[in-house]
Amino acid sequence: MSAQRPVLVYEARGQGQTRLATRDVSPPVHVGDFEHLLDALGVTEPVDLCGFSFGGRIALGIAAERPERVRRLVLSGVGAGRGALGRVILRAWRETLKTGDLEALAWLSLADTLGPRYLEANESVLAAFVKATVRRNSYETTAALFAQTLDDGPGSPWAPLRLAPRVRAPCCC
Fold this sequence. Notes:
Elements: H1 27-40, E1 47-52, H2 54-65, E2 70-76, H3 84-98, H4 102-113, H5 116-122, H6 126-136, H7 139-149, H8 160-163, E3 171-172
Parallel strand pairs: 1-2, 2-3
């Protein structure tokens, strides 16, 4: 609970300790999961929604698909599209995932998802961050998420540049 309002920290299907099936972890399923959660909690008013990286992509999808549910949107770590650098990073992640070594993937993704200032300021806790990431996730769910959510090229209806024009909420990126 913040000083002004309740805060809900949502853990998406396929991430962390969720127990939801991961047969389908596509963006539409994530949007539906979030809406079902709000309904189950009796949240009827639009919410302020914040997401980072994968969570930012899902938040963008929620804001575009269910604009009546989102009052304000804050996104971080969500690129408009994948240029050559983004495609190389994605390939490196996929190749590392094939090894089954989630720790190596977690270390590799740190350099690609967190900025130099953050890494510099928090270097002393990065090993613990990686350990927690590995402990809270599994190879199977990570592989499912990679297979079903990272193909968001320009033609995909889930590409950020296809979703963004549909967002009605004020947004901070």
